[in-house]
Amino acid sequence: MSDLSSDSLVELRDALRAFAAERAWGRFHTPKNLAMALAGEAGEVIEHFQWLTAEESAALPAARHEEVSLELADVLLYLVRLADVLDVDLADAARRKIVINAERYPVEKAAGRADKYDRL
């Protein structure tokens, strides 16, 4: 698995900025529109797993795996673009969220459980 560092997120952000600017899409890239596009792309990821067993979902055929890979890329790209428009540093926000989750899900309470933090 490759490492998605802050630098690579910045590179993606800059590439998406340029892509959108070259096409004069700025007026369409509102937070509302980007959030809706992100949700739509997440739905397209879900479609690939609908009706599969847990085992089938973990062992996708190569062609479907490639399709899912591209859908995941769409989700990431819309997420990075939305974060850019909202001036959110995704890497920093993710690091902060990991700390919050570590507090919400202490190992001694959460290990081996799928309960939400308020039910541990």
Q: Can you give me a brief rundown of this structure?
A:
This protein has 120 residues and is mostly helical. 70% of the residues lie in helices and 0% in strands. It is globular.
Task: Report what the structure shows.
The chain is an all-alpha fold. Helix content is 70%, strand content 0%. The chain has helices spanning 6-22, 31-49, 54-58, 62-85, 90-104, 107-110.
Describe the secondary structure blueprint for this structure.
Layout: H1 6-22, H2 31-49, H3 54-58, H4 62-85, H5 90-104, H6 107-110
Helix pairs in contact: 1-4, 2-4
Instruction: Give start-end ranges of low-pLDDT stretches.
Output: none
- Provide the β-strand percentage band: under 5%
- Radius of gyration equals 17 Å
Instruction: Give the N-terminus to C-terminus distance in angstroms.
Output: 31 Å
Q: Which H/E pattern describes the elements?
A: HHHHHH
| Mean pLDDT rating | 94
**How many DSSP-defined strands?**
0
Q: Helix/strand/pairing class, anyone?
A: mainly alpha
Percent of residues in helices: over 70%
The 3D shape can be described as globular
* DSSP summary: helix tally: 6
Let me know the largest β-sheet.
none
Q: Name the assembly state.
A: single chain
